[in-house]
Specification:
By secondary structure, the chain is mainly beta. The protein has 1 helix and 23 strands. The strands form 7 sheets. Strands 7-9-12-11 form a 4-stranded antiparallel β-sheet, with no helix packed on it. A 4-stranded mixed β-sheet has the order 8-14-13-10, with no helix packed on it. Strands 16-23-22-19 form a 4-stranded mixed β-sheet, with no helix packed on it. GO terms for molecular function: beta-catenin binding; cadherin binding; calcium ion binding. InterPro entries: Cadherin, Cadherin-like_dom, Cadherin-like_sf, Cadherin_CS.
C-alpha cells in the first residue's frame, strides 16, 4: 500500500576500468525484469515503486533483475546483472470476515458453567498483529447467559456459558457476535470498518434433572404431647422435566437414628413415630430424600428442622423440705418473733462454728 515512488533500496555495481578513460567505467542502470512494479534511477540505482497500492495479499514477493551497463549504456558497452528479491511487508488494510454468517450450536441444559459451547472465527487476510481480532456479543436474547472470549493462538472466539440453562423455560437463544481488529492503522481507515458480525443460534437440549423441592428448607412445629402417627408437616417436590416422573420420599436415617419420625413415600407427609419430650430435646433436624421413580439416580435432599413445643406436663416441685416452729398459744396471723430470733441465732451459730 506504499505510495507511488516510494524508495525500496539502491544497488551498486563496480567497474575495474579506469574511470578517467572515456566512458569505460560510466555505468547506467536499468531493470530487465520487474516492471511494471518497480523502476530504477539510471545513474543513482535507487529502486522505487512504480505502481501505487501494491497488495501483499495478491502477491507478496517479487524478483527484480537489474542490469548495470558501462559506456554510459551505449551500444557496445559491457553489462552485468543482479537479482533483487523484494518482499512486501503487511499493513492492516483488510477487515476480519466471518467464515459464515450463521452458526448453529447445541448444548445440554445441565452443562457446567464455564463450558465452551462453540467457536466462531473471523478470517483476516492480514498477518501477525494486523490479523488479531477481539470478539464481543453485541446483541441477542442470551447476552446475560453467554460470553465470548478471544483465543489469541487460534484467532477465534470461544462462546462459554455464564449462567445455568433451563430447557423447560427457554429452548433456544440467538446472539449477534462481532469480530473487530485490535490494531487499527488510521492510514487505511477509509477501507473499513475493520469489523464484521455474525448470528449464533444456540439450541438447549433437554437433560434429566433431579427433583426440586418447593422450599430449600422446611421448619415444622409439633407439641410434645402429639399423638403417635399424627401428621406434623409435609414436604413437596416435583420433577422439572417435561416428561415428569413420579417422586418417592424417604428419610435419611443417618439424621434420624432413633427413628422418631416417618414419612409417607407418596405424598411427603411426616408423621410422629415415637413420643417427644421437649425437656429432653427441643430441636430435631432430619433430611428428606426425593427420588425419581423412573430414574433412581436422580435424587434431591432437603433439611427439615422440627421444633418441639411445650405443654404443661410437669407438676411444680419445691427445691427442698421446710420445717417451721410455732408457739402453742399463738394467735391466728401472729408471727412468733422469739422463734424467728431463735432460728436466726441458730443460723448465726452455724455460720460461726462452721
Amino acid at each position: 500500500m506504499s505510495i507511488l515512488g516510494t524508495s525500496v533500496t539502491n544497488v551498486t555495481a563496480t567497474d575495474a576500468d579506469d574511470p578517467v578513460y572515456g566512458n569505460s567505467a560510466k555505468l547506467v542502470y536499468s531493470i530487465l525484469e520487474g516492471q511494471p512494479y518497480f523502476s530504477i534511477e539510471p545513474e543513482t540505482a535507487i529502486i522505487k515503486t512504480a505502481l501505487p497500492n501494491m497488495d501483499r495479499e495478491a502477491k507478496e514477493e517479487y524478483l527484480v533483475v537489474i542490469q548495470a551497463k558501462d559506456m554510459g549504456g551505449h551500444s557496445g558497452g559491457l553489462s552485468g546483472t543482479t537479482t533483487l528479491t523484494v518482499t512486501l511487508t503487511d499493513v492492516n488494510d483488510n477487515p476480519p470476515k466471518f467464515a459464515q454468517s450463521l452458526y448453529h450450536f447445541s448444548v445440554p441444559e445441565d452443562v457446567v458453567l464455564g463450558t465452551a459451547i462453540g467457536r466462531v472465527k473471523a478470517n483476516d487476510q492480514d498477518v501477525g498483529e494486523n490479523a488479531q481480532s477481539s470478539y464481543d456479543i453485541i446483541d441477542g436474547d442470551g447476552t446475560a447467559l453467554f460470553e465470548i472470549t478471544s483465543d489469541a493462538q487460534a484467532q477465534d472466539g470461544i462462546i462459554r456459558l455464564r449462567k445455568p440453562l433451563d430447557f423447560e423455560t427457554k429452548k433456544s437463544y440467538t446472539l449477534k457476535v462481532e469480530a473487530a481488529n485490535v490494531h487499527i492503522d488510521p492510514r487505511f481507515s477509509s477501507r473499513g470498518p475493520f469489523k464484521d458480525t455474525a448470528t449464533v443460534k444456540i439450541v438447549v437440549e433437554d437433560a434429566d434433572e433431579p427433583p426440586v423441592f418447593s422450599s430449600p428448607t422446611y421448619l415444622l412445629e409439633v407439641h410434645e404431647n402429639a399423638a403417635l402417627n399424627s401428621v406434623i408437616g409435609q414436604v413437596t417436590a416435583r420433577d422439572p422435566d417435561i416428561t415428569s416422573s413420579p417422586i418417592r420420599f424417604s428419610i435419611d436415617r443417618h439424621t434420624d437414628l432413633e427413628r422418631q419420625f416417618n414419612i409417607n413415600a407418596d405424598d411427603g407427609k411426616i408423621t410422629l413415630a415415637t413420643p417427644l419430650d421437649r425437656e429432653l430435646s427441643v430441636w430435631h433436624n432430619i433430611t428428606i430424600i426425593a427420588t425419581e421413580i423412573r430414574n433412581h439416580s436422580q435424587i434431591s435432599r432437603v433439611p427439615v428442622a422440627i421444633k418441639v413445643l411445650d405443654v404443661n406436663d410437669n407438676a411444680p416441685e419445691f427445691a427442698s423440705e421446710y420445717e417451721a416452729f410455732l408457739c402453742e398459744n399463738g394467735k391466728p396471723g401472729q408471727v412468733n418473733i422469739s422463734m424467728l430470733l431463735m432460728m436466726n441465732m441458730f443460723v448465726y451459730n452455724c455460720l460461726i462454728f462452721n
